[in-house]
Structure prediction request, 558 residues.
Amino acid sequence: MNTTTQKGMFGKEYAWRGIAVLCGLFVIALTLVIGAFLIYKGSDTFLKFGHTLWEFLGSAKWHPVDSAEGGGAAGALIFITGSLVTCGLALLIATPFALGSAIFMTEISARFGEKFYRPVVEIFAGIPSVVYGWVGLTVLVPFIRNVFDRQVGHSILAAGIVLAVMIFPTITSVSADAILAVPDACRKAAYGLGSTRWQTIRHIVIPAAAPGIISGIILGLARAFGEALAVSMVIGQTTALPKSIFSTTKTLTTEIASQMGNAMEGGELKSALWSMALLLFLVSLLFITLIHYFTNKGKAKAEGGKA
Amino acid sequence: MLKTKFEIEHLNLHYGSFHALKNISMKIPANEITAFIGPSGCGKSTFLKTLNRMNDLEENVTIDGTVRMDEKDIYSEMDAITLRHDVGMVFQQPNPFPKSVYDNVAYGPRIFGIRKKSQLDEIVERSLRQAAIWNELKDRLKKSALGLSGGQQQRLCIARTLAIQPKVILMDEPTSALDPISTSKIEDLAMELKKDYTIIIVTHNMQQAARISDKTAFFLLGEAIEYGKTEDIFARPQDKRTENYITGRFG
Ligand SMILES: Nc1ncnc2c1ncn2[C@@H]1O[C@H](COP(=O)(O)OP(=O)(O)O)[C@@H](O)[C@H]1O
Ligand SMILES: [Mg+2]
Prediction:
């Protein structure tokens, strides 16, 4: 090999590395810029319009005025409650099914699971949320109205179910990967001690895969938390604290999506919406941190470090 | 005269169309150490696994012939789960669960329904003592078993097996992944345990077989070529192929 081609080779190596580093830095910078921008915009509620953090998080009085004079009320409790309740309900519904499916497609019927079930689940993950919302509106909402004998079928229940269907594939495939990563030697050891299949799954496989399963659940939760479109189609969009799962209400994302177009730039309403966006940003940071925590815990478990 | 633990008659095993065990018949005595030796791929592990039906977990395995333990046919008169309560197994690679030392040993008793803390404590201590590892581990019972050395892990796996109080312990090359000191600890342990248990050990280390076993079976290409007292097999092998193997002429 002569020196010119070597030089060319290393030159390319450096060029590629440079591009990769630049892209990485760009993404980091973008995240920081978005964060800074949200803080800048979202802080007006507190600094310019003089609302307290306690009012924003703890009050259900939502009358921000749509002008720069301010003086309204900016309590986002309704939306925070709406988001928490719909997402909680979605998790409650989706997690058992997702875990059951993940166990089924890995431990019970691996061949059918890998060939058929997993591709189907992955297709579900790729369907745009407007489709889920529309199907929910057309099928689920009338169904709830008739079965539970309500005036309207739009409800937290409808939103929870639609979100559950949306996050089910995420939780399923992440959990299935976590279960597949449990070494076969563990299963053999369990069978060798006279465990039944269910005992092996329940006491060995699931605990060993737990950090990965929890990551999947948080990932699903993050998706549910950020979903605006499908939820707004079935939740009934009422500015009131919910009284039961049949109540109509709003979430952080649905309120931002429906109001941001109308609100005046620099007004109190717009600032309050920005504060809600900042809250969403912080919550998603929290989710990511948790996922990292559990992923590392899973690694430590597999390698035998401190776990 | 020693009691017979296993009586194997005309045992054949196929993996798909591959004939892995060919017409094996032998009687394995209780409270002795029986060693299976032979070049790798000759079917030692396969044969060992027929004794606790671990082969049931694999696909495309067909077995014919009979295997009786204490005069009961383990394939037709017992279910695999109950059988494995009596026939414990230690694997080639130490395979502790990703749990604490305590939970590893308590796993078996717990799935048998023992819940009482005092009773579990007692079983854990007794099993770890039997496996000669209590002194090393008594202060780290709550620590992850994965942080132990390979030799400690393997003795922990033996303790975990002892905790289910089996009658037989199958060991598949239990020291092949270990250093010489850990190896000799496990060999001493096996000799200690044979008072109370029947031990069957697969090894490709002939010195190990000669050191610790009472009976030795030599396998080649799925056949049990020669089986008898260990000192006879090593001093006066009857079959030319056995002689070639133990004198190191092949394998
Ligand atoms: N699950 C299996 N499927 C197909 N063939 C197997 C399987 N397990 C082992 N074998 C084959 O059976 C033969 C005996 O294997 P094994 O019992 O593991 O040998 P040993 O333990 O003596 O090294 C080998 O040729 C091996 O390739
Ligand atoms: Mg083997």
In short: Residues B 15, 18, 20, 38, 40-46, 58 surround adenosine-5'-diphosphate (ligand 1) (CB under 6 Å). Chain A touches chain B through 24 residues (CB under 8 Å).
